[in-house]
Amino acid sequence: MRALRQGFTLLELLLAAGITLLLLGLIAQGLRSGSDTSRYIQTAQSTLEDLRFAGNLVSDYLSTAVFIYPKGITLTLNSGCESYTVCNPLTNSNQWTIGSDPIIAAILPPEDSGIACADTSAGKRGCHRFFAVYALSRGKVVEAASGAENPGPDPTNNDKWTLYVNLKYLSDPKEQKDFQNNEVAFTPPNTKIPVKLTNTQGNLLADYIKPGDGLTASFERCLDFSSGEIASLGSCNDVLPANLGIYTSAARVRFSLLGQITSGSRIHTFPGPTQPLVFQVGARNLSVRK
To answer: What keywords tag this UniProt record (predicted)?
Structure first.
């Protein structure tokens, strides 16, 4: 009888090595895919929580506002985009138009901050505050920000937006001179609403906002004094800058937030592609006609 052949041929060894490498590649790909999925789930959950927190925070501020900027008004923040925290991602400028750009802005009641403001007949009180929430380019934020203001490098998502909040005490003489602190809000009818703000600085509020429509706002109802001293809620039309005053305030605002993350070749939008987080706010401290 022929003796049994011992060992393997070179061809058999090469085939075995090739199969082994193929299996290892498939395993590595599966592990990488699982890691990417896990990263996406964690990031999406964290971002969704941040969006809910951000929406509730903005709602709280707007509900106490003494004035909400209506659509059609253009705000100028600082003197240019030298500060990345005021740079409009749609126009790459420091100008923001309410109703067209991703921004919501308001004037908040006086707060005693220790900052000197104008003396009034009611005594010296705190300053009114300018409030705005808006979207910035994530790529530019990562490039310019430091410390806790930097959400961290993620080149795949440089095209996404971040959400920033801007809160400024109106202590500058040019901004404060027409503000008189009354029991509730401004003293009509001579109050002027600032549209050019200086020395403003935004702070990071939420990350991974969908570019384009990640922050949208509609102004559903505005003050209407056409029937007398008691305000009713009328439709909102574009307000000309020359007509801007406390009686032109928006009264009800509806805004939505939508997150988005690119992971590998997939783009994930949450809570859902057509299901943003929606918030509706009615301001309760708006002025009465005097």
So the answer is: Cell outer membrane, Membrane
